[in-house]
Design brief:
Length: about 120
């Protein structure tokens, strides 16, 4: 059988053992693998969203169909401008509001955006 990383990720993400996958289940996994490939999913993203499914729906078994059905809703939220600014600042050794306790969020974001183009010392 030709190796298919998307198939493998779905099977692993759903917790299936290779030897327990029937032809019917393999057909379903292959169908979902094709659907997810069509929307640009990577095997790594399949694993991340499989974990997100377990967090979002505790106590429910993850199946290939459930993964495909809930795929869009399992996407992590986009990083807000504030979170992005804090992440970039911390990567550069800055802390929000440190040394400027009266600095607003907007001022901090503006400062990080300006300094992001310039090298930090």
């Amino acid at each position: 059988m030709k190796q298919n990383p998307h198939f493998e990720a779905i099977a692993q993400g759903c917790g299936y053992e290779k030897g327990d996958i029937t032809r019917t289940l393999a057909s379903l996994i292959a169908k979902v693998a094709n659907e997810l490939r069509e929307v640009g999913a990577t095997p790594e993203e399949i694993m991340r969203r499989a974990e997100a499914y377990r967090v979002k729906f505790p106590g429910f078994d993850l199946t290939p169909s459930a993964l495909a059905k809930h795929w869009a809703g399992l996407k992590p939220p986009a990083e807000s401008q504030w979170d992005r600014s804090v992440r970039i600042a911390r990567e550069k050794g800055l802390e929000p509001f440190k040394g400027a306790p009266d600095e607003t969020k907007e001022q901090f974001i503006e400062r990080v955006n300006k300094t992001n183009v310039v090298n930090f010392r």
